[in-house]
Design goal:
603 residues, alpha+beta
């Protein structure tokens, strides 16, 4: 087909705006509406649901949304493609069919399966095959995602390969109105729909790569339309209720990102750049269908709330698929001590010594916790007129395989100090039990060993072949640095006065992408940023990463540097290893740090 394909998004995570599905269907013309419901943490949530009820394991929100929106989608001829199937895509597809009969809307339902590897212990770390475990530092994944050695394959709660868009395309070509998947790559929801519409095959690498980049922009919903945007205040973006994004995709993979008329937020080169950098790493953005070269992406403003994405080059995908693995990590507990007024450091030292003595004695528990972590947040201000502003927070986090070791044995011991510790002693919550936590890991499995099956609307089960041509993933060398700026007067100011940032999590690693916006002096600002924000400088500005492996990637077309920080998040978001467990605000912390910036670059 020659016309553009209009693909929208109505969900960036399980729990996103409930009314978004209706807003997108009613707000303007669409051909396909996608919904991304899965994240690393979501798989653990769905695993818990499935343990309670084997028929569960999918995102129930989608069904509730369909109850009032299925008729509207059918009336407008919009096809729905969602990964809400989670751990049970067949179960959700059956539930959707039941719903269509109940509400009297005749739609054809298909689903994609094959991603669930839990029964394939030979492919998992600790199984007979040992799993494919590699340190792929340029694929959007990092070495800290590697699975631990010595673990048996039956330890996992979930194990799902990230499939591509070919199964989605097969379902749509067979006439499906609703396609439900399990674990596919987030961008595959869009690229699969585009491949079906335009008839692309596995050799159309540039077109597929363009659609993957468009899909990556759409996948997190309103993050592309001004949500979580670093310059929302400076650029006066109305971020109170941003509209969800859509992409007009052409037959060559070129796309324009926009939103429905009259909706909030904004679509600018800046908002799209921010989302492009989110949870990525180097120039090669690998997927099951194609490896997209992020260093070839060109963004241009194509009118109000319209950004054109073009020039994207594609390469053959790697021969392996990423597999997301979750397991039970143990139990954790947390106590937050409030330290008010004077002598904060001495108060913190006293209570730490008291709790450490308790752990050493083994009182109330058979042994000390396996992992004990303290952090002191100096949120206090001198001569504060509000008591809360005069207080610092001392956070104790403990973890252990044994619930009893981190339960009342810890929180009860803290409360027992109420009359025997620092002046003004109090904690933020009453004693609590240890709570279970999960761990997300990533491994790599041979694509040829993973079934990819499209279950078509008539019930036919069609095996989807993996791409015949593959290419091992290797790093792309950094491009040459632009010439440095000539020396001149500088002013001490926050980095964010000049640069935007977006950060996020990938397993135990974090990424933070930093870019300079399009301004009359944008090229000069990029020259300064490329030389100023080195790995060594990042470690100075963010002391928490000082001892961790950090990799920097240059993306000149986006005027951006992207850092991957291995191990910052410990065992992943569910383990809550730090104050900001998903590194969502890491970029804003970096923007708040003061550096010497050339005066003529500052606004």
């Amino acid at each position: 087909m020659s016309g553009p394909l209009r693909v929208g998004n109505a969900s960036g995570f399980y729990g996103d705006r409930f009314d978004a599905l209706r807003e997108m269907l009613a707000g303007g013309p669409l051909d396909v509406l996608t919904g991304d419901y899965l994240a690393e943490l979501t798989m653990l949530i769905l695993a818990r649901d499935r343990m309670k009820d084997p028929r569960a394991g999918y995102a129930k929100t989608f069904l509730r949304q369909l109850e009032t929106c299925l008729g509207l989608a059918h009336e407008r001829g919009v096809r729905l493609v969602v990964n809400a199937g989670g751990l049970n895509p067949a179960g959700l597809a059956a539930a959707v069919r039941e719903l269509t009969e109940r509400v009297g809307v005749p739609v054809r339902v298909a689903h994609v399966e094959g991603d669930d590897l839990l029964a394939r212990r030979d492919l998992l770390p600790g199984g007979d095959g040992g799993g494919a475990d590699s340190d792929r530092t340029d694929s959007g994944l990092t070495g800290s995602d590697r699975t631990g050695s010595g673990r048996t394959a039956d330890a996992y709660l979930t194990a799902n390969a990230y499939l591509g868009g070919a199964g989605i395309a097969a379902c749509l070509r067979a006439g499906a109105d609703v396609v439900v998947t399990g674990r596919v790559t987030d961008a595959a929801l869009v690229s699969g729909a585009a491949a079906a519409h335009f008839g692309w095959g596995e050799g159309d690498l540039d077109a597929l790569a363009g659609a993957v980049v468009a899909g990556h922009v759409l996948e997190c919903g309103t993050q592309a339309t001004g949500g979580n945007y670093a310059f929302f205040a400076r650029e006066r973006v109305d971020a109170r209720h941003p509209g969800f994004p859509l992409a007009e995709i052409q037959a060559d993979g070129t796309a324009v990102v926009t939103k429905h008329p009259g909706t909030g937020g904004a679509v600018t080169v800046g908002t799209v750049t921010a989302q492009l950098l989110y949870e990525t790493a180097g120039a090669r953005y690998a997927g099951p269908d194609v490896t997209a070269r992020l260093d070839t992406v060109r963004l241009t403003q194509d009118g109000t709330d319209r950004v054109r994405i073009e020039g994207v080059r594609g390469e053959a995908p790697p021969p392996t698929l990423k597999a997301g693995l979750t397991r039970f990590g143990g139990f954790r507990n947390e106590v937050v001590f409030v330290l008010t007024g004077l002598d904060v450091e001495e108060k913190a030292a006293l209570v730490r010594e008291q709790m450490t003595a308790h752990f050493s004695s083994g009182t109330g528990a058979a042994k000390p916790p396996a992992d004990v972590r303290w952090t002191l947040a100096r949120t206090d201000h001198a001569d504060a007129s509000v008591q809360e502003e005069a207080s610092a927070l001392l956070r104790l986090v403990v973890r252990d395989p044994d619930e009893a070791v981190v339960g009342r044995a810890v929180s009860g011991a803290a409360v027992e100090l109420a009359l025997a510790s620092y002046p003004g002693f109090h904690v933020t919550a009453p004693p609590g039990k240890g709570a279970p936590y999960g761990v997300f890991e990533a491994a790599y499995v041979p694509a040829a060993e993973v079934p990819h099956t499209a279950v078509l609307p008539d019930g036919e089960r069609r095996a989807i072949p993996h791409p015949a041509r593959t290419r091992e993933l290797t790093p792309v060398g950094d491009p040459a640095l632009p010439p440095p700026l000539p020396s001149g007067p500088v002013r001490r100011a926050p980095l964010g006065a000049l640069a935007g940032a977006r950060s996020g999590d990938k397993g135990g690693s974090a990424n933070v992408g930093v870019w300079v916006p399009e301004t009359p002096r944008g090229d000069e600002a990029w020259r300064w940023l490329a030389h100023e924000l080195t790995v060594e400088r990042l470690r100075e500005l963010l002391p928490e990463v000082r001892e961790l492996p950090v990799t920097r990637h240059l993306l000149p077309n986006l005027r951006a540097v992207n850092f991957v920080i291995d191990g910052l998040l410990g065992e992943g978001v569910a383990a809550q290893a730090r104050f900001d467990p998903q590194a969502k605000a890491l970029g804003e912390w970096l923007r708040a740090r003061h550096v010497d910036i050339p005066e003529d670059l500052l606004p």
